[in-house]
Design brief:
503 residues; 22 helices; 6-stranded mixed sheet; alpha/beta
């Protein structure tokens, strides 16, 4: 399909949030991962408005091709289609890649039917193909070392995506006490000749900060140059991780159209469980491309820094860090929020740099009133305590028969509170970010009031609810532990250097 509305002749350009540097094309942005000045890369063009009627007719592979093609040079569409076909069209996902089901009056877009039973699969199944095609387009001969910090799901999805991919190796850092038992077991049992999983004594923010510093480190740059290596990222600091997430917003909307729940052109809300905000930001990009979205409802757990930001305009990281029953949301530094602020500031890189400098040095910043008014117009927010998460799982299951994981329960609970407080009954899609079997002990306790170990909880939950165990999690207890390395958070940079020198 080629329409006047899909202006594929637009040459993709990316620029750093902080500086108006010489723009990078799409392939350079994927490979580089982050700006040389430490700023995140953003698309540097007006988002192409798409033809909703034409796109609504497409399957997921073709839809992804059309959406992502707006970011690439004109001759890149065939390459993008091949990548999307490999990621989504060869049996790694069900025929309907993202089923949309109903839980009462809430439409639940299930993003967890990939290789790791979590929504990160939606982007990380595609990113390795984007990386390899970008390397070829740039005639890059150096070894690519992928660095990823994870609060649980990114790590496994990235490992699965990049394992044994020629010309790459991947290092994943996770907090030893900050992921669920299932998430940890998935990572430490990961096979692949080019993968390493490293536990850290610290939290996710420590790992993410270290990974960001790695890209700006002169010491690591010198080592990389000497050993013919360059560093790239698999976190959503890489725009190649971010833009594939745009696709499932369009897909979810079209599923409602196809099922006669809405008419094409009707506005809907999206409720998004969010820790690092990238999942929500992708929806904003979809809106810029013409998807009729009314409001984004950003749902947080007890680490409610995003809720406070969207309520007050102040981002204050000087607070206690909580480990919760929704561990992938246990985050205080939300990188992708930088990108949103940049867009809301009309691309004023100096202003964004000022905010980020304040955050880095003082742990706090506050956007100006003009930016805050723009943000408030589109984003609403709320949070749930741990006890309320369990209550929500039980209530949803008893009332609708739908089984929520702890993360999606936060979205469901925040949405219900938002509807009650505002009277906004706009039809809403809730992004379901993980299978309930990723956190079975919490889900089982919520419904049946009994505390079980994680593996007993999987079996009992399956027996009592009839909800199938995802293939990705079946037999996980018996998988051999292959990665036992653990380091202090202060050792991450030196560890990366030693890995570069070993190549």
């Amino acid at each position: 399909m080629r329409t006047d509305c899909l202006l594929l002749q637009i040459i993709s350009a990316m620029q750093s949030l902080f500086q108006n540097r010489i723009p990078l094309n799409f392939y350079q942005a994927i490979v580089q991962g982050i700006g040389e000045d430490g700023g995140l890369l953003v698309p540097n063009f007006d988002f192409t408005k798409v033809d909703l009627k034409e796109l609504s007719k497409l399957n997921y592979v073709d839809l992804a091709t059309e959406v992502l093609s707006t970011f690439v040079p004109e001759d890149g569409k065939t390459l993008i289609h091949e990548a999307c076909l490999n990621a989504y069209g060869k049996g790694l996902f069900p025929e309907i890649v993202v089923p949309v089901k109903k839980a009462g009056d809430v439409y639940v877009a299930e993003l967890f039917h990939g290789q790791t039973a979590a929504f990160k699969d939606m982007a990380l199944s595609l990113l390795p193909y984007l990386m390899t095609l970008s390397l070829k387009q740039l005639d890059e001969q150096r070894e690519v070392m992928i660095l990823a910090a994870t609060s649980g799901d990114t790590g496994k999805a990235a490992l699965e995506g990049f394992k044994d991919v020629e010309g790459t190796c991947i290092k994943v850092f996770y907090p030893l006490d900050g992921v669920s038992t299932i998430q940890q077991q998935q990572m430490v049992s990961q096979t692949g000749n080019n993968v390493k999983v490293i536990g850290i004594h610290g939290n996710f923010d420590d790992a993410q900060t270290a990974v960001k510093k790695a890209f700006a480190s002169e010491e690591l740059k010198a080592a990389s140059d000497k050993h013919n290596v360059f560093l790239s990222s698999a976190n959503s600091i890489n725009v190649g991780r971010l833009i594939p997430q745009i696709v499932y917003y369009f897909h979810s909307y079209f599923e409602l159209v196809r099922n006669n729940e809405i008419n094409l052109g009707d506005r809907i809300n999206f409720c998004v469980p969010s820790g690092n905000f990238g999942n929500c930001l992708a929806g904003y990009f979809a809106k810029l491309m013409g998807l009729p979205i009314n409001k984004f409802i950003c749902a947080s757990n007890k680490n409610n820094i995003l809720t406070d930001f969207f309520t007050t305009g102040k981002y204050d990281a000087n607070r206690e860090f909580y480990k919760t029953n929704a561990p992938a949301m246990d985050i205080l530094v939300s990188s992708n929020l930088e990108r949103l602020v940049w867009f809301m500031a009309d691309g004023d890189g100096e202003k964004v740099r000022g905010y980020m400098d304040k955050l880095n040095h003082e742990g706090i910043y506050e956007v100006d009133e003009e930016i805050f008014v723009r943000i408030k117009d589109q984003f609403k927010a709320g949070y749930l305590s741990e006890d309320k998460v369990l209550d929500t799982i039980r209530e949803c299951f008893n009332e609708t028969g739908y089984l929520l994981d702890t993360h999606t329960a936060i979205g469901y609970g925040v949405l219900k509170q938002y509807q009650k407080d505002t009277g906004d009954n706009t039809k809403t899609v809730l992004l379901s970010t993980a299978s309930p079997y990723k956190f079975p002990e919490s889900v089982y306790q919520a419904i049946y009031g009994e505390e079980l170990d994680v593996y007993s909880a999987i079996n009992k939950l399956n027996e009592k609810t009839g909800v199938p165990i995802p293939k990705a999690l079946a037999g996980i207890k018996e998988r051999e532990i292959l990665h036992k390395k653990a380091i202090d958070k202060t050792e991450i940079i030196s560890f990366i250097k030693s890995e570069i020198e070993a190549l």
